[in-house]
Amino acid sequence: MAAGETYKVDNMSRLSTSQCTKVFIQRDFSEGTAVRFQNKFPQELEGKIDRATLERTLNTINEIYAEAEALSSRTYCESCFACLTAYLAYLCMDTYYEKCLKRVARYIDEQNKTVYVPHGLMIVDPVERGLRVLEICVLNEPQHR
C-alpha cells in the first residue's frame, strides 16, 4: 500500500465517521460480563461484506478480548509487582490488558485498510465507544436521519 493510500484511510477514520450510516454490533452478555460482541450479521451490511469475513473479524476480536481478561501467572505476577511498587510500576509499563487493547486496535486498523475500507465500510475501535458496541460505518451512503 502506498503512503498516499495510508494517509487516505487515516483521514477517513478521523473525518467521515460522523457523516456516515452507522451499524452497531452489541455486546454479548450471555456468558457473563467479559468483553464479547454478538456474532449476528446485521441486515444493513447485506451485500456490502461477506458474512464469513465479518464473522472471522468478530471472532478474532472476541478472542483477543478473552485473552486479555483471562487470569494467568503473567497477570498475577504483574499485579503483585504493581502492589510491591505502590502501583508506580504502571507509570513505566503497560498492563497486559492494555497491550491486548492495543493489539485489537492494530488488528482493526489492518482489517480496515485491507478488507473493510475497500468495501466502503470502516470498523471503529470499541474502546472509542467505551467497549459497549462495535461500530461499523458505511462510508458510501449518506446518513439517514
Automatic annotation (TrEMBL):
Keyword Nucleus attached? no
Topology relative to the membrane: Peripheral membrane protein
Q: Where in the cell is it found?
A: Endoplasmic reticulum membrane
**What top-level branch of life does the organism fall under?**
Eukaryota
Q: What is its main location?
A: endoplasmic reticulum
Q: Which UniProt keywords apply?
A: Endoplasmic reticulum, Membrane
Q: Which residues form the Golgin subfamily A member 7/ERF4 domain?
A: 23-135
Any one of the GO CC terms: endoplasmic reticulum membrane
Signal sequence range? none
**Which family does this protein fall into?**
Belongs to the ERF4 family.
**How does the annotation summarize its subunit structure?**
Interacts with ERF2.
Protein name (database record): Ras modification protein ERF4
Q: Origin organism of this chain?
A: Batillaria attramentaria
